[in-house]
């Protein structure tokens, strides 16, 4: 297992480098491609463990959904409640009924098998939405709808899949029993997740206000929260997915109203959340690439013998696309937004996870039918991740608003900002070597220092203590005045509308972080 984790993490690191240098290619595609390469080479493939659906949902999906829930305003959920019910109940059920009939009629599949194929393709993936919109903006209403759908419809897919499995084993569709199960699972998951999260929050808030508060322990409890809630919820047979999403929503309000109680703790928590979310998101797509490649290799005999899986997969994708488009029109979206919503139903690793769970949940499914489900689902995933990139990003152009700022613009502004700070430092009456170190630190903000400069600074720092106390104080005061000049420059640009608030506050925040490294003793090495 350690070898597998190590290889996957190194792959994620390499993927991030590629993503930085090839910004026109969505990062999810790069991750998937590298995952496929890992399987192609026997040297790496032999060290990577097989896909474990239960472990994947517990360790990766549950924390991701929890963090995504925490990043979602409760107000948005209340406002979008009608839309949530539509995308989590109405759209999946109608799609399942229509598609099951189409697959039964077109490919002579028995209805329970057709329902299974549709059910595993219900969950959508929020992390792959960038493949659809690129670096362009979409309306806030459409963005909220797609986000809410991806948060809650995983549970719908799980319940519908269980209903299809029971239909296959019992020989009849138990509508009332399945409806009751859905209500108990969904409502129970929401109640349990909300209650458990609230209790944990109260305990943590009491802890924060006590004399025994320890940041590391608080952070550990927080990171374990989604895993504990998911495990307990699944153990008592309610929706673990809805439980962790609800728990995340409850934590959203806590974060907004207690961020200044212990600022350092909140800041550390946010950094960990952002780091872990990014790693897990990339991890998901590397695993997806590995798994997709292995599916085709393992099922190649069946795949080459009968191409029904290909046409079934294409049919599922096209009918789902049409259903999503007309649902968006019924929801009073304009034609453009309806198209974006239709293509926004991107499927990913959760869909594969449901497919692999069939072997453990059902004993009534024969190997050939399982191969059909597995391969057709793979087709749906590939189509849902590639077609939107072509249709939406390059044909439709998504011409609906202002593009987000790019890195070149940001770097140009930061260069001008540092120039203002250097002018202030140049006028200071401080020791020459202190001034040199301050200039080095300021230029380092915009990567204007050479490797030779760094080696020289490193050698001097390693050999001896450079400054006496008075000189250390001089350096600190010089940097603080320089950062003040930078902040004043950015404030001027924001107030004059020269740059957007988003870009301005991002740079302003970076300056404050740099300043905290100077004035906060806990952010410094001895």
TrEMBL record:
Keyword annotations: Cell membrane, Ion transport, Membrane, Sodium, Sodium transport, Transmembrane, Transmembrane helix, Transport
Pfam family, one: Na_H_Exchanger
Subcellular location: Cell membrane
Gene Ontology terms: biological process: regulation of intracellular pH; sodium ion import across plasma membrane
Predominant cellular place of this UniProt entry's protein: membrane
Molecular function via GO: potassium:proton antiporter activity; sodium:proton antiporter activity
Gene Ontology CC, one term: plasma membrane
Membrane topology: Multi-pass membrane protein
Domain Cation/H+ exchanger transmembrane as annotated: residue spans: 11-391
Annotated InterPro entries: Cation/H_exchanger_CPA1, Cation/H_exchanger_TM
Superkingdom of origin: Bacteria
Residue ranges of the TM segments: 29-48, 55-72, 84-103, 110-135, 155-175, 182-207, 227-251, 272-297, 309-327, 339-359, 371-396
PANTHER family found in the cross-reference section: SODIUM/HYDROGEN EXCHANGER, SODIUM_HYDROGEN EXCHANGER 7
UniProt name for this protein: Na+/H+ antiporter
Originating organism: Fructobacillus tropaeoli
């Amino acid at each position: 297992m350690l070898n597998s984790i190590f290889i996957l993490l190194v792959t994620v690191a390499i993927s991030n480098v590629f993503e930085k240098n090839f910004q026109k290619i969505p990062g999810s595609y790069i991750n998937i491609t590298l995952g496929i390469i890992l399987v192609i080479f026997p040297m790496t493939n032999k060290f990577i463990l097989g896909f474990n659906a239960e472990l994947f949902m517990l360790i990766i999906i549950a924390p991701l959904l929890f963090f995504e829930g925490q990043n979602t305003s409760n107000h948005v959920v209340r406002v979008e409640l009608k839309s949530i019910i539509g995308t989590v109940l109405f759209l999946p059920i109608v799609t399942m009924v229509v598609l099951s009939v189409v697959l039964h009629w077109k490919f002579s599949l028995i209805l329970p098998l057709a329902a299974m194929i549709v059910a595993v393709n219900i969950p959508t993936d929020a992390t792959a939405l960038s493949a659809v919109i690129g670096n362009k903006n979409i309306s806030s209403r459409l963005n909220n709808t797609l986000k809410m759908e991806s948060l809650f419809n995983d549970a719908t897919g799980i319940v519908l899949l269980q209903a299809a499995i029971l239909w296959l084993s019992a020989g009849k569709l138990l509508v009332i029993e399945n409806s009751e199960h859905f209500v108990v699972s969904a409502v129970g998951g929401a109640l349990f997740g909300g209650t458990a999260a609230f209790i944990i929050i109260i305990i943590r808030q009491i802890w924060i206000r006590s004399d025994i508060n320890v940041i590391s322990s608080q952070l550990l409890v927080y990171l374990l929260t989604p895993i504990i809630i998911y495990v307990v919820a699944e153990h008592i047979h309610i929706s673990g997915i809805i439980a962790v999403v609800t728990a995340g929503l409850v934590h959203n309000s806590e974060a907004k109203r207690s961020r200044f109680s212990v600022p350092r703790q909140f800041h550390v928590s946010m950094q960990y959340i952002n780091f872990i979310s990014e790693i897990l998101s990339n991890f998901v797509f590397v695993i997806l690439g590995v798994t997709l490649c292995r599916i085709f290799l393992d099922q190649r005999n069946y795949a080459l013998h009968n191409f029904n899986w290909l046409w079934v997969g294409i049919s599922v994708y096209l009918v789902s696309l049409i259903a999503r488009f007309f649902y968006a029109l019924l929801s009073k979206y304009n034609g453009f937004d309806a198209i974006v919503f239709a293509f926004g139903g991107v499927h990913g690793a959760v869909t594969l996870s449901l497919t692999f769970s069939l072997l453990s949940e059902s004993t009534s499914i024969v190997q050939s039918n399982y191969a059909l489900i597995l391969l057709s689902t793979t087709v749906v995933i590939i189509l849902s991740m590639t077609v939107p990139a072509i249709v939406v990003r390059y044909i439709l152009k998504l011409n609906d608003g202002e593009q987000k700022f790019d890195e070149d613009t940001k770097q140009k502004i930061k260069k001008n900002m540092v120039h203002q700070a250097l002018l202030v430092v140049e006028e200071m009456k401080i020791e020459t070597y202190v001034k040199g170190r301050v200039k080095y630190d300021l230029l380092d903000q915009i990567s204007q220092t050479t490797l030779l400069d760094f080696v020289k600074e490193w050698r001097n720092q390693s050999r001896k203590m450079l400054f006496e106390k008075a000189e250390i104080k001089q350096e600190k005061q010089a940097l603080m005045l320089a950062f003040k000049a930078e902040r004043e420059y950015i404030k001027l640009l924001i107030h004059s509308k020269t740059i957007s608030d988003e870009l301005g506050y991002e740079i302003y925040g970076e300056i404050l972080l740099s300043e905290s490294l100077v004035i906060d003793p806990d952010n410094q090495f001895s």
